[in-house]
Design a protein that fits this description.
ArAT; Aspartate Aminotransferase, domain 1; Aspartate Aminotransferase, domain 2; alpha/beta; HistidinolP_aminotransfase; about 35% helix; single chain; binds pyridoxal-5'-phosphate; seven-stranded mixed β-sheet; 17 strands
Length: about 400
Amino acid sequence: MRATSQPVIVRSHTHFPTIRTFSAWTPCVARHRMCKYGHMSNRFLLRDALAEFPPYVPGKPPASAPGLKPYKLSSNENHLAPLPGVADAIADAGRVPANYPDPKSTKLVADIAAHLDVDEAEIVPGAGASEILSALTNITLEAGTSVVYPWPSFEMYPILASARGAEKRPVPLLEDGRHDFPGLVAAIDDTTRLILLCSPNNPTGLSISTAELDGFMAEVPAEVIVVLDEAYFEFATDAEVVDGMAAYRKFPNLVLARTFSKAHGLAGLRVGFGVADPTIATALRQVIAPFSVTSTAQVAAVESLSRNDEVLVRAKDVAATRDQFAQDLRNAGLTVTDSQGNYVWVSLPDDDAQDFEAACAAQAVAVRKLSGGVRISIGPDEALDRVREVATKFAASRTA
Ligand SMILES: Cc1ncc(COP(=O)(O)O)c(C=O)c1O
């Protein structure tokens, strides 16, 4: 209960007097707690819930090893140089840093809408798909609501759910790394406001089929928003993979989250977008900070989209390398999923995954150990060759 009382002047550690209203909950001002991730909380009246937020752990940079060029295969970045016109557009836009960007990303929105053959009102640009996902949690979740998502999947999902104070309902993936749709349906109840799906799934790489999504959507209440996170869809080559746009046209409560970070190789500029029913799109625009997509990001995305055919050719090249690399690792004796992203997933017990990551680091290649395995982004041949060698020795040492 928050009792009221008279304001008092107190001296803060900065020596400027500040006015605070002391009340029955004052004791928490003095409470200093260390959360399990080592943060101090509540010294400054921060939310208690922060202590329970799962941390976002970014992919590690590569360790240095004498005589070896370092490679980072830990963040699913695109290792190819930007397309020529894109590099020029970035250089031009960077010349006028004093002006705010177009807050509506007018040209980018128009081009995406034309490209996807939807109305401009259905396109919401943001600083990466991350901002779209964050906005989706912002317009749907609060205390007393729940969000359902597969797990393991993109690490931001539980962080964003925690940020909104919603109940997290992670549904374990099936043994083979695919979404457990009956499990996801069973996790939905009348508190559920948001469902997140990821195709291809990060980190397992497996994607959702059209039949799976159709069957699932038939079970979800029509007013509950379902997000299909398609950050990696350009790399998918399996004919069964759901076509997000076709699904979007069928289901008004389906929202697509897409990005220029992966196939378009613009992760450092931060630009992505949502495709949503205009009512949902309007709500998303309400919570996204103005000017979040920089001028440079806007022109780079416009230019890259105009070269989408080239982007797709490159994505399919990456996919071909991925399939060969996955097969090589299988031949070496590892268990590797049929990934549809720009990465492969090696299933390993946690201790082995740790050792594998360390063995790659010793070769100046950063890969990503996660719960249940190691994720390796597709990178230059030299980097993949080093991982192949590590895999061969590693598998041999495990069978010796
Ligand atoms: C599945 C998935 N969704 C969304 C994102 C966010 O991408 P960005 O914010 O760079 O657009 C990522 C990034 O790695 C991802 O793996």
